[in-house]
Amino acid sequence: MSAEKSPETRERILRAAARLLAEGGSEALSTRAVCAAAGVQAPTLYRVFGDKDGLLDAVAGYGFERYLAEKHSLAPTEDPVEDLRRGWDMHVDFGLTHPAFYVLMYGTVRPGHRPAAAEDAYALLRAMLERTARAGRLRIPVDAAAQTIQATSAGVTLALISSPADARDRGLSVRVRDTVLASVTTEARPAAPASGDAVPVHALALNAALGDRPTALGSTETVLLREWLERLATSE
Asked: Are residue 5 and residue 89 in the same domain, yes or no?
């Protein structure tokens, strides 16, 4: 591997770009400025990242790695809904602590494109929701809940970032968080099985509990069971 495309060169360029981003926002991320800060020539940058979009994707991924490190530091508790609440608060705090990174990660999008690290963040949220479903605490399917939480938490964080620091209403995040979580999760004690509202909750819990583990059913029967559970989970 040539020195120009070595991991050390890539890391040096990313660190330089991250520093420029933190100090001056995305406007500071010109290829000329990044090359100067990293001490490399433009051809080296293009050989490593392909183009400006490739560099931005890599910097966004660099930010997501920091985000995921903080997410993984949250040890799960016995209450999966409380863990979702803590995860939401950590998400917003990360955005307000690293606003330039956050805007690049969540506010600068291309249709149909999401950095690989963003997929990891989504998978982590989905895993938390699967645990919530297994506990019988989820009202709607896992993916629907994940999309709802991801969209609203990002929207709130971007709104707070755009507000002047002295006029920032941190209570906005709490209000939206509690409203969203109340709409996708249940109380600690689910309704009795006889209640119509409890059927989707228990269907989701059973589907999540099955996971990929083998059952006494045949493959065709398992597919049918999952289809029925998914129908029950989305019934009103």
From this structure: no
105 and 67 in contact (C-beta within 8 Å)?
Answer: yes
Contacts of 213 by beta carbon, 8 Å cutoff, 6+ apart: none
pLDDT value of residue 1: 46
Query: Which residue matches tokens 């920032």?
Result: 168
**Backbone CA torsion sign across 38, 67, 156, 126:** positive
Question: Domain range for residue 95?
Answer: 56-189
**pLDDT tens digit string along 7-23?**
889 999 999 998 998 88
Q: Which of 50, 71, 87 is the last residue of a domain?
A: 50
Helix (H, G, I), strand (E, B) or coil at 59: helix
Question: Do 128 and 93 belong together in one domain?
Answer: yes
Residue 79 shares a structural domain with residue 169: yes
Spatial distance between the Cα atoms of 20 and 136, rounded to a whole number of angstroms: 46
Q: Give the count of domains, the chain.
A: 3
Per-residue pLDDT of 210-232, as tens digits, reads: 666 566 666 776 676 667 667 76
* Tokens at 44, concatenated: 């080296």
- Report the CATH number at residue 28: 1.10.10.60
Question: Which range, 1-5, 66-70, 100-104, 230-234, is most confident?
Answer: 100-104
Q: How far is CA 166 from CA 85, 96, 162, 163, in A?
A: 25, 13, 12, 8
* Helix, strand or coil, per DSSP, at residue 113: strand
Query: What does the alpha-carbon distance between residue 31 and residue 77 come to, in Å, rounded to a whole number?
Result: 44
Same domain, 121 and 175: yes
